[in-house]
Amino acid sequence: MNIRLSVADSQHFSHAEEICKIMEEAAKQRGTGIAKRKPEYIRAKMEEGKAVIAIDTEGNKFAGFSYIESWDNKKYIANSGLIVHPHYRGMGLGRKIKEKVFNLSRTNYPNAKIFGITTSMAVMKINSDMGYRPVTFSELTQDEAFWKGCQSCPNYDILTNENRKDCLCTGMLYDPKEQKEKKTSEKDKQTRWKKFKRFVRLHQRHLQRKTKQFLNLTTSKND
């Protein structure tokens, strides 16, 4: 096994169908959504140099992938669609892909805010180590095209019921202005992660209360 990470291009077009398939399977298993993408969309990202792919050179096998999206006239950047093939999980490959696509984003869009939404604690930990902080959805892009991508998620009703202010996902933001010339020690990372987890716990409790109130209101209306 020899995994090579690189910026994807046209030579990787043949992997697009498998990437979409693995993304969809992972979303079904988690019960939450990576927005569904078609192979044509994935190939376009490869052609634009806005994707990172991991290839097992022993057999040219697809191992992992992530791509870059831009919103609000490139003021906001999202590292989307992180996926690792089941055969290559548990090796730390997801973190390596995240770091590479993050660095690619910083190079291509040095002044943009980088954000994401996820239910995965593993992704949150990686993002926290890279300087992301948890935020409310109001601090993320308000570009309608981004939020439209949530429609394929089974939890979309929660998002709309909350007027797009909250959902099961946690919002995360990296602001280059906050990180400029800021050196981060291992202790700083641990402290930031503790604060991150506390935010997530409070967010989950708040959402549980809101969901319960909504269900009670719906039940009362139907009585």
From TrEMBL:
Q: N-acetyltransferase domain: which residues?
A: 1-153
Q: Does the keyword Transferase apply?
A: yes
Which key words are in the record? Transferase
Q: Extract the InterPro entries matched here.
A: Acyl_CoA_acyltransferase, GNAT_dom
Query: Which SUPFAM superfamilies does this entry report, sorted A to Z?
Result: Acyl-CoA N-acyltransferases (Nat) (SSF55729)
Listed GO MF terms: acyltransferase activity, transferring groups other than amino-acyl groups
Pfam families referenced in this protein's UniProt entry, alphabetically: Acetyltransf_1
Q: Which domain of life is it from?
A: Bacteria
- Protein's name according to its UniProt entry: Acetyltransferase (GNAT) domain-containing protein
Organism this protein belongs to? Fodinibius sediminis
